[in-house]
Design a protein that fits this description.
Elements (H helix, E strand, L loop, with lengths): L2 E7 L16 E2 L2 E2 H12 L3 E6 L3 H8 L4 E4 L6 H6 L2 H5 L4 E6 L7 H14 L3 E7 L8 E4 L5 E5 L6 H4 L3 E10 H8 L15 H8 L4 E5 L12 H21 L3 E2 L6 E2 L4 E2 L4 E2 L4 E3 L3 E2 L4 E2 L4 E3 L2 E2 L4 E2 L3 E3 L2 E2 L4 E2 L4 E3 L3 E2 L4 E13 L4 E13 L4 E2 L4 E3 L9 E3 L4 E2 L4 E3 L2 E3 L4 E2 L4 E2 L8 E2 L11 H4 L1
Parallel strand pairs: 1-4, 1-6, 4-5, 7-11, 12-15, 13-16, 14-17, 15-18, 16-19, 17-20, 18-21, 19-22, 20-23, 21-24, 22-25, 23-26, 24-27, 25-27, 26-27, 27-28, 28-29, 28-31, 29-32, 30-33, 31-34, 32-35, 33-36, 35-37
Antiparallel strand pairs: 2-3, 6-10, 7-10, 8-9
Helix pairs in contact: 1-5, 7-8
The structure holds uridine-diphosphate-N-acetylglucosamine and calcium ion.
Uridine-diphosphate-N-acetylglucosamine binds next to strand 1, helix 3 and strand 10.
Length: about 450
C-alpha cells in the first residue's frame, strides 16, 4: 500500500504563549511534529511532506532532513494548508494520509490500520474519528440513519442537534490522491470562520458519487492535539508511559515509572534497575545489570554492565563495566571512564580518560587528563588545567598514588608507580617509581603563644 503523509504544521499556536513555534515544543525530548514524522515513516510512508507557515524557517531548520516541506504563507484553513502540498499530491499514485503536526500521540500502527481499512473499503476518503464524552471544539461527524458518513460540521457551523454528536473528527484522514486533488479544487471559504476547510472535501466527494467512510479509534489518546502547556504535559505523561512500558516489558526494572523520564532514543538492556526520578536522554545506552540510582541524569552517554550510578550527572561520556559512580559525581563531556573504577562523592571529571581500576573517591576535579589504570587519587585533588587563557592536559600513568590535596599544574606528567605526598603542588614531571614532595616543610615555633 503506497501512501504519502501530509503533516499540517503551519498554525500559530497562540495558546502556547511561546516564542517557540508550537510544533517544535517537545514531548519526551522530541518536537511534536517529529513524532508524527516518525510515526509516518515507521508506517511505511513513501514521502512525508510537512506544511509549514508560522515561523516556518525555524521549523524547517529543526526538522531538516526528516521531511519534505511545503510552505503556507497565510493560514487560510486546513484545506488551504493541504493545497500547498499540491505538487506532491498530484504526483502520488496511491493514498494521501493527512496528519496534524500538533498531535504527536498517533502511532505507526494506527496509520497502517487506517490505510488498510481505507484500501479494503474502497473509500475515496476515510476520516479517522473518535467518540468522546466531551466533543467541544471538534468537528462533528454527521451520519445518516444507516450509519453512513455524510459530512463533517465544525463546532462554529453546527446546529443544536449537531453539537450533541459525540463522534468527532480527529483531523486525520486517508484519501485517494486523485480524489483529494479533485475535491480540494472545489472547496470555498463560505463558513463561519472564512477558512478553506479540509473537512468540506468529504461532502464534495460524496456528492460526486464517491464513497466516504470513517475509521474509529479505540484509543482516544492518539488523537490528542496540543494547544496549550497543560495539554503538552498530558501528552508527555502518556508518551512517557508508552516508553517506560516498552522498557519494563523488555526486562528493565523501574521502581517508580511515573517519575522516570526516558527519551525515545535511549537504549536499555534487560536487567537494568532504574530508581525514581532518573532522567535518561539523547543517544544514551545502559547495559545489562547496571543500576541507575535516584536523581541521576544521563545524557548522550553509555553506561557499562554492572555499573552503579548513584545520584549523579553524566553527559556525553562513557563508563565501563562494574564501576561505581557517585553519589553526587558530575561527569562532563568527553570523559571515558574504564571498568572497575570508583568515581565517588563530589568528584568532577571533564574531558578525562580514566583507566580501569582507578579510584577517585572524594572531592576531586580531574579535567583534560589522561589517567592510567589502578591510579589512586586521595581526597581533594585538583588538576590545574587552565591558566586563564589556555587549557592543558595532565597525564597520570598506571599505578600512581596521588596523595590528598594535591594540585597537578598542567601540562604535567606523573609517571608509572610514582607517589606524590599529600598537599603537594606538582609543576614538574614525576619520574617512575619516585616520590615527589612539593610543599614547604613544617616549622614549629615552641611557646609562640606567650611571645606574641
Ligand atoms: C480541525 C478540523 C476539525 C477537527 C480538528 C481536530 C477543519 C476545518 N477542522 O479543526 O474538524 O475536529 O481539526 O483537531 O479542518 N493548520 C495549518 N494551516 C491552517 C490551519 C491549520 O497548517 O491554515 C494546521 C494547524 O497547525 C494544526 C492543524 O492544521 O496542526 C489543525 O488546525 P486547527 O486550527 O487546530 O484545526 P481546527 O480548526 O481546530
Ligand atoms: Ca482553526
Amino acid at each position: 500500500m503506497s501512501f504519502i503523509s501530509v503533516i499540517l504544521s503551519a498554525g500559530m499556536g497562540t495558546r502556547m504563549k511561546s516564542r517557540v513555534p508550537k510544533v517544535l515544543h517537545e514531548v519526551c525530548g522530541k518536537p511534536l511534529t517529529r513524532w508524527v514524522i516518525e510515526a509516518s515513516k515507521n508506517a511505511g510512508a513513501d514521502e512525508i511532506v510537512t506544511v509549514i507557515g508560522h515561523k516556518g524557517e525555524t521549523v524547517r531548520e529543526a526538522l531538516d532532513g526528516l521531511t519534505e516541506f511545503a510552505v503556507q504563507s497565510e493560514q487560510l484553513g486546513t484545506g488551504h494548508a493541504v493545497m500547498q502540498a499540491g505538487e506532491y499530491i498530484k504526483k502520488c499514485a496511491g493514498f494521501v494520509v493527512i496528519l496534524n503536526g500538533d498531535a504527536p500521540l498517533i502511532t505507526a500502527k494506527t496509520i497502517e490500520n487506517a490505510v488498510r481499512y481505507h484500501a479494503d473499503s474502497g473509500n475515496s476518503a476515510t476520516v479517522i474519528t473518535a467518540v468522546l464524552e466531551d466533543s467541544t471544539g471538534y468537528g462533528r461527524i454527521v451520519r445518516d440513519a444507516d450509519g453512513n458518513v455524510l459530512k463533517i460540521v465544525e463546532q462554529k457551523d453546527a446546529d443544536a442537534e449537531e453539537l450533541l454528536i459525540k463522534e468527532i473528527n480527529s483531523g486525520m484522514y486517508v484519501f485517494g490522491a486523485d480524489k483529494l486533488a479533485y475535491a480540494l479544487e472545489k472547496i470555498t471559504p463560505n463558513n463561519a470562520q472564512g477558512e478553506y476547510y479540509l473537512t468540506d472535501t468529504l461532502a464534495i466527494l460524496l456528492e460526486n458519487g464517491n464513497k466516504i467512510g470513517a475509521y474509529t479509534l479505540e484509543d482516544n489518546d492518539e488523537i490528542r492535539g496540543i494547544n496549550d502547556r497543560l495539554q503538552l504535559s498530558e501528552a508527555e505523561k502518556i508518551m512517557r508511559k508508552r516508553i517506560n512500558n516498552r522498557h519494563m516489558l523488555g526486562g528493565v526494572t523501574m521502581r517508580d515509572p511515573d517519575n522516570t523520564y526516558i527519551e525515545d532514543t535511549v537504549e536499555i538492556d534487560p536487567d537494568v534497575i532504574i530508581e525514581a526520578n532518573v532522567s535518561l536522554s539523547g543517544n544514551t545506552k545502559i547495559c545489562g545489570g547496571a543500576v541507575i540510582g535516584s536523581g541521576s541524569k544521563i545524557i548522550n552517554s553509555r553506561i557499562g554492565s554492572g555499573t552503579e550510578v548513584m545520584s549523579s550527572v553524566i553527559t556525553d561520556s562513557t563508563v565501563g563495566e562494574n564501576s561505581h559512580i557517585g553519589p553526587f559525581a558530575y561527569i562532563r563531556p568527553g570523559s571515558e571512564v574504564g571498568g572497575n573504577v570508583k568515581v565517588g562523592d563530589f568528584v568532577e571529571l571533564k574531558n578525562a580518560v580514566i583507566g580501569s581500576g582507578t579510584k577517585i573517591s572524594h572531592l576531586t576535579y580531574i579535567g583534560d587528563s589522561d589517567v592510567g589504570e589502578n591510579v589512586n587519587f586521595g581526597c581533594g585533588c585538583v588538576t590545574v588545567n587552565y591558566d586563564g587563557k589556555k587549557k592543558y592536559r595532565t597525564v597520570v600513568e598506571d599505578n600512581a598514588f596521588i596523595g590528598c590535596n594535591t594540585n597537578l599544574v598542567s601540562p604535567v606528567t606523573v609517571r608509572k608507580n610514582a607517589y606524590i605526598a599529600a598537599g603537594s603542588t606538582i609543576t614538574d614531571e614525576v619520574p617512575e617509581n619516585s616520590l615527589a614532595v612539593a610543599r614547604s616543610r613544617q616549622v614549629v615555633k615552641t611557646d609562640w603563644k606567650d611571645k606574641r
